[in-house]
What we know:
InterPro entries: RmlC-like_jellyroll, RmlC_Cupin_sf, UGlyAH_Cupin_dom
Organism: Miscanthus lutarioriparius
Protein name: (S)-ureidoglycine aminohydrolase cupin domain-containing protein
Strand content: over 45%
Structural class: mainly beta
Number of strands: 7
Shape: globular
Largest sheet: 7 strands, antiparallel
Amino acid sequence: xxxxxxxxxxxxxxxxxxxxxxxxxxxxxxxKWGCPPGRFPLKFDAALTCYLVKGRVRAxxxxxxxxxxxxxxxxxxxxxxxxxTWDVVVGVDKHYNFDPS
Length: 101
């Protein structure tokens, strides 16, 4: 039996948001992070919003059959409390922002 996950925890992907949206969020002022292809288990202790400049990722949500794909040009939100495994297919370069609330 799969472990239960808190309700409402899912990854949101906004495909190719308009430049005005990115400017409104201040994405270019966010820190940058990158990684090579590989598998990375992650747990989000704070909500994370990221904008992928390069790369392609398949994220499998722990305790769920949900698998979300996202890549260059996508704005992605991971809610606080979510655990997932990133299968980085193409090396990632991204801007990111943690929401401490």
